């Protein structure tokens, strides 16, 4: 069942009924100011940091799930009939409804009883504000008197404090209304450096800023008393719950359209004006009034929206493909690339499933996100790498997450997720392959953001590698620490007394548990660092890194191979995990993917056997599950993984992040059919036709799809902010289509389904444009052994970098 359709030409997903299985959301903003918006206008906004600069309030786990947002109410003043322009929250029947989610904007249109409303929501480039452009049309044959009410509920900035510290916060809310602009200035009394504003382009019939006055003491957002009565109260919030609402009266002739613009924004005072005289409560608005006035003009909004579209034209123009598969084309050309940019901006911090309070920017997450967007906007990738590296500790370890506003680690401990440091090497390697910018390796970067601790970025990479080598366990495999990539596999729980309950102690972040996954990751990272060292002329170091990789490969084969697949780990007592010796959790997907990516088992058949085991034991019609058999009960010695019911999340759910590792591994072995089959199983576009099963958005990846052991097999959860986005983009573009940046050039080495006749692509790389044509006979599963580059035969599949500004014709002919 479908709830809408793709408009590929407009680069939009069109939702034609409001009651989607879950709220289907979009993101506004692409720089510093961000917002989430659902297909019924639910969501929230923030500046830079979803916890510390939250503009609007949102209650998680609400009913409906997306209740609270950017609501516009319409009221027919002749009859008293009122409704929501976005269906929510009144849920009155609409004669027509359409939501168009586009690239950093959403447009919601509806009609009821001859009154049509169309609202465009977007964040202009280089601004810290969002625009709501409402167009109200009278489609009746008679004049109409319509009241339009806007509404937002302000958050008191720190989202965690706002949601918990009511005894204080119910007494601190403050607003100021000046010239029809509602200013939210809670905290201004103590900080005097930032505030929010909510403005309207039309003369006001009234306003409200106190939630209880607008809604009524015993009412919700579905039936505000002010809207019902058709008159604002002029309330000014003092404590309790500040909101912003404008009341505009519109007299519409038959066929007439009126445009009303609302602007919600964030402002900081200029540095010299931050501290007013002692006791001053006057809001300094001089610098923001020109901004407000400019964005309330229709021509400014039109120009700003056009600039946003041009911005996305530039971003998505770096890679364009035309393949035999429409789902692949729209994901690569539009939606997967767009999701990669959103995950770059937000990591895992703010969605309807991430509160924006606890996680911040993930060290591991942000490094992986680099893989999917570095080709789109490499200058911001460079900036992000330096930000990430500055949170690293001098040991080579890392805070698992850091807060984007402060760039300080937000864990209670500084390290413990022992895979984190190695991701920095992989992220930097991806940047270097794309840009050739070796100068970044000389950039001085502090440890733990401490002044005076700066070392070249290259030294950060060497400490990342040594962090693993300094923490090897009894089998010579890396210690897992608190966890590796799988945060829920917590193996350092133990008891000193037989028969006593297992305990998690201080030793649980070190301990003796070992990870085969980190071992495979280490081999991959060591090889990448060796390639970087060679470019720097450090050939002795490169040899050391390759020797370390070779030694770890031997350790994996000796202690990590279980006979038909790679083991997952060893627990605190040295018992294997992910082994045929186990009664449950016998095979895990992660080491099968990472070990093959690292080249382990390619020459002796182990890699092929491991991938066959994945196909036999883990693959389902909805994707590859994380492990099998599922854990049927809680096992404290394994930690959180066994706390989930079978088939969900890490307990045998389809953790989509891991699926592209297997896709890539299959291409390394030359299995294009199997790789592409796995790609389509979790492709959101390909799953659109089963939206009643999938439930999440059909245009972006979800973190998890319920596995075969779950009663809701095929249901997706936790959409948008997931490493699945970057890794699937890498899998399809770099390995299946085979257009892969390397340190010394652009490799074009496709591993295609046998029934494809080829494809075409345009790829920007280091300032040059590569126009790529791949041809092969249908039914052939062969790979190319040479290329034609500008008509000249080139042995192998690597194209050396061309001069910036040039266009290179690359032809791949597969016999």
Automatic annotation (TrEMBL):
Instruction: Give the Gene Ontology MF terms in alphabetical order.
Output: carbohydrate binding; glycosyltransferase activity
Q: Which residues form the Glycosyl hydrolase 94 supersandwich domain?
A: 11-271
| InterPro entries documented for this protein | 6-hairpin_glycosidase_sf, 6hp_glycosidase-like_sf, Gal_mutarotase_sf_dom, GH65_N, GH94_catalytic, GH94_Enzymes, Glyco_hydrolase_94_b-supersand
Identify the Gene3D superfamilies for this entry. Answer: 1.50.10.10, Glycoside hydrolase, family 65, N-terminal domain, Maltose phosphorylase, domain 3, mpn423 like domain
The residues covered by the Glycosyl hydrolase 94 catalytic domain are 311-738
Protein keywords: Glycosyltransferase, Transferase
Per the UniProt entry, what are the Gene Ontology biological process annotations, in alphabetical order?
carbohydrate metabolic process
What is the official name of this protein in its record? Cellobiose phosphorylase
């Amino acid at each position: 069942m479908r709830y809408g359709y793709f408009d590929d030409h407009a680069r939009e997903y069109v939702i034609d009924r409001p009651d989607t299985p879950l709220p289907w959301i979009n993101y506004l903003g692409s720089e510093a100011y961000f917002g989430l918006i659902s297909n019924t206008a639910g969501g929230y906004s923030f500046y830079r940091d979803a916890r510390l600069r939250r503009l609007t309030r949102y209650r998680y786990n609400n009913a409906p799930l997306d209740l609270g947002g950017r609501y516009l109410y319409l009221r027919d003043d002749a009859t008293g009939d009122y409704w929501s322009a976005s269906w929510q929250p009144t849920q009155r029947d609409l004669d027509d409804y359409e939501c168009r989610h586009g690239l950093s904007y959403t447009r919601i249109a509806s009609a009821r009883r001859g009154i049509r409303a169309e609202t465009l929501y977007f964040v202009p480039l280089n601004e810290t504000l969002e625009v709501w452009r409402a167009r109200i049309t009278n489609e009746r044959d008679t004049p109409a008197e319509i009241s339009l009410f806007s509404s937002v509920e302000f958050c008191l900035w720190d989202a965690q404090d706002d949601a918990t510290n009511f005894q204080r916060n119910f007494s601190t809310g403050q607003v100021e209304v000046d010239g029809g602009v509602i200013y939210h200035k809670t905290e201004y009394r103590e900080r005097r450096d930032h505030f929010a504003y909510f403005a309207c382009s039309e003369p006001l019939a009234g306003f409200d800023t106190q939630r209880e006055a607008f809604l009524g003491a015993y009412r919700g957002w579905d039936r505000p008393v002010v809207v019902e009565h058709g008159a604002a109260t002029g309330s000014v919030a003092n404590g309790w719950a500040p909101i912003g609402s404008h009341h505009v009266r519109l007299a519409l002739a038959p066929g007439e359209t009126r445009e009303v613009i609302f602007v919600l924004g964030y402002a900081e005072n200029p540095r010299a004006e931050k501290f007013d005289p002692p006791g001053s409560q006057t809001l300094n608005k001089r610098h923001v009034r020109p901004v407000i006035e400019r964005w309330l003009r229709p021509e400014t909004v039109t120009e700003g929206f056009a600039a946003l579209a041009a911005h996305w034209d530039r971003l998505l123009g770096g890679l364009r493909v035309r393949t035999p598969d429409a789902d692949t084309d729209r994901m690569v050309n539009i939606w997967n690339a767009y999701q990669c940019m959103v995950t770059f901006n937000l990591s895992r911090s703010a969605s309807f499933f991430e509160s924006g309070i606890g996680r911040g920017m993930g060290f591991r997450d942000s490094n992986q996100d680099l893989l999917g967007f570095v080709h789109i906007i490499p200058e911001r990738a460079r900036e992000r790498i330096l930000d990430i590296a500055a949170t690293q500790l001098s040991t080579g370890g890392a805070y698992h997450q850091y807060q984007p506003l402060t760039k300080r680690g937000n864990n209670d401990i500084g390290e413990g997720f022992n895979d984190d440091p190695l991701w920095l090497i992989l992220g930097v390697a991806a940047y270097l392959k794309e840009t050739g910018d070796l100068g970044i390796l000389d950039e001085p970067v502090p440890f733990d953001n401490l002044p005076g601790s700066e070392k070249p970025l290259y030294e950060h990479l060497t400490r990342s590698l040594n962090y693993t080598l300094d923490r090897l366990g009894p089998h010579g495999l890396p210690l897992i620490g608190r966890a590796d990539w799988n945060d829920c596999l917590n193996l350092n729980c133990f008891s000193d007394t037989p028969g006593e309950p297992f305990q998690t102690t201080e030793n649980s972040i070190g301990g003796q548990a070992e990870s085969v996954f980190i071992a495979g990751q280490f081999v991959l990272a060591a090889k990448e660092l060796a390639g970087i060292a060679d470019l720097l002329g450090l050939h002795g170091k490169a040899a050391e890194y390759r020797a370390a990789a070779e030694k770890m490969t031997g350790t994996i084969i000796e202690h990590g191979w279980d006979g038909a697949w790679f083991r997952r780990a060893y627990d605190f007592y040295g018992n294997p995990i992910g082994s045929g010796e186990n009664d449950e959790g016998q095979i895990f997907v992660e080491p099968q993917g990472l070990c093959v990516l690292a080249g382990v088992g390619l020459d002796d058949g182990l890699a092929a056997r491991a991938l066959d085991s994945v196909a036999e034991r883990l693959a389902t019609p909805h994707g590859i599950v994380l492990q099998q058999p599922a854990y049927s009960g809680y096992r404290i010695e394994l930690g959180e993984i066994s706390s989930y019911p079978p088939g969900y999340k890490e307990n045998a759910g389809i953790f989509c992040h891991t699926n592209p590792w297997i896709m890539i591994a299959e291409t390394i072995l030359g299995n294009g059919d199997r790789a592409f089959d796995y790609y389509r199983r979790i492709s959101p576009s390909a799953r659109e036709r089963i939206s009643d099963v999938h439930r999440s958005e059909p245009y972006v990846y979800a973190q998890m799809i319920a596995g075969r052991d779950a009663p809701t097999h095929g249901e997706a959860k936790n959409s948008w902010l997931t490493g699945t986005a970057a890794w699937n983009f890498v899998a399809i573009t770099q390995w299946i289509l085979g257009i892969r940046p390397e340190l010394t050039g652009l490799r074009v080495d496709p591993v295609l389904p046998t029934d494809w006749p080829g494809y075409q692509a345009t790829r920007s790389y280091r300032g040059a444009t590569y126009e790529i044509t791949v041809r092969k006979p249908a039914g052939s599963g062969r790979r190319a052994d040479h290329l034609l580059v500008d008509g000249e035969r080139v042995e192998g599949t690597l194209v050396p970098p061309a001069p910036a500004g040039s266009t290179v014709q690359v032809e791949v002919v597969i016999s």
